[in-house]
Amino acid sequence: MPDEMARPLIRGRGERGGSRCLEASMSDPGAPVVGILGTGDFSRSLARRLVASGYQVVVGSRTPKRSAALFPEEAEVTSQMEAASQADLVFVAVFPEHHSTLVELKPTLAGKTLVDVSNGLRINLDGPSNAEQLADLFPESSIVKGFNTISAWSLQMGPRDGSRQVFLCSDSSKAKSSVMQLCRRMGFIPVDMGLLSSSLEIENLPLYLFPSWRIPVLCTVALFIFFYLYNFLRDVLHPYVTKKKSVFYKMPIDTVNVTLPSVALVMFSLVYVPGLCAAFLQLWWGTKYNRFPKWLDGWLTRRKQFGLCSFLCAVLHAVYSVSLPLRKSSRYELINLAVKQVKDKVEDSWDNAVVWRMELYISVGIMALGLLSLLAVTSLPSVANTVNWREFSFIQSTLGYCALSMATLHTLLYGWDRAFDSSRYHFHLPPTFVLVLILPLTVLLGRLALLVPCVAMRLRKVRRGWEKSRHIRFTLPDDGSHNGLEDVSHV
């Protein structure tokens, strides 16, 4: 037994001279023989993972002698016809345009399970899928679509270093069950996607480039461009036009640092706007069973991405703010200010109101960033899976609104009384913080409106199934209530 446990899963080439026989002692005798047609990178990684999982593996190649050295010693590399005849379950790991070259194997593969692991070159919305075309070529075989979302790296290094989910679909429940069992033995988690008609969706999955991030990222970039140009117009171009004073050096840091918190606060507000819209729509309709508009439905599913984009801008704002005193221009400004005070014989330049404003402004900003960091960490799947729904809702909703309130207060303290100073309206444009505060203040007021007892009670009733149109008298469950519905005669 000790000798057997010390024996490696995949041995290197030794004195056996590259023998390709199947190692029965290395695999479960009851396990099916798994065949692989193709000798590419994916095939090699798949063979290694199957051998390590205890399966007997036979690889079919057009040039067995040339490909033998690329595979583990425990896997037999032979011709495609021989591999197809030996295997009970066959992975078709060749490009879809080469599927037609396997037609001569049709009699041998009849009645066997074929797993199509191919992907397309571009997103295919019209069909047919590669798996459906393979099913047309091999009508007597059971086709299973799967493993196309797993990379060769994940197969070679194991499920711990990559995605563990394997999406599967097939018209044969027996074939799909056998592949699902194989997935679990390899350490992956099979996800049943239904019939083979779902294969087109599975094949498109690896080709999407952050589909849920597209709108949040575009929104972030658009807001950044808008606020950057707005700040450039007010803080850089205005002094140059009115006083011939060049302050273009502010563009890389100062202007960016004023723009980032503006984008962060607006994006953070956009996280909670769809929830408020959904709540007010349900109150207006008097039911929770109407579908939301498509744009609102999509917005609700992208709130996490909006929040993470906001968090990124907030963190960058903190880094830029810390680096402000490191600039050469900041040192020159301090020297010029000191020289001016000496010339003007200013004995005490202490301004109590300004000091208090800055202390509160920085303190509240740090608290807002801390709460936003907590929200960002909790949104990670590995963290979210460790808390229950009530805890997750408390963090994302209650603490989220606290973070939004802190960020709004941070901006109000920054503005202080400058919103009422006419000299701050360059080109008759209001200061940036005035524009930024519109949306978060609206969101907070909307949230306060939903907390009014009569409104909150009605919303709770709606979300527990009460419908205005059906004239149901509904009471929320209290101490000894049964199910919240009273017996009435006119339901």
Write a brief caption for the model.
This protein is 53% helix and 8% strand.
How is this structure best described in words?
There is one protein chain. With 491 residues, the protein is an alpha/beta fold. 53% of the residues lie in helices and 8% in strands. The protein contains 19 helices and eight strands. Helix 5 (106-109) links the parallel strand 4 and strand 5. Helix 11 (254-285) packs antiparallel against helix 13 and helix 15 (352-378) packs antiparallel against helix 17 (389-415). It is elongated and about 100 Å long.
Fraction of residues in helix? 40-55%
- State mean pLDDT (0 to 100 scale): 87
Summing up helix and strand content along with how strands pair, one would put the structural category as alpha/beta
List how many beta strands DSSP finds.
Answer: 8
Rg from alpha-carbon coordinates: 32 Å
Spell the H/E element sequence. Answer: HEHEHEHEHEHEHEHEHHHHHHHHHHH
Q: Give the low-pLDDT segments.
A: 1-25, 480-491
Oligomer: single chain
> Termini distance?
74 Å
How would a textbook summarize the main sheet? 8 strands, mixed
Beta percentage is 5-15%
Number of helices: 19
Shape designation: elongated
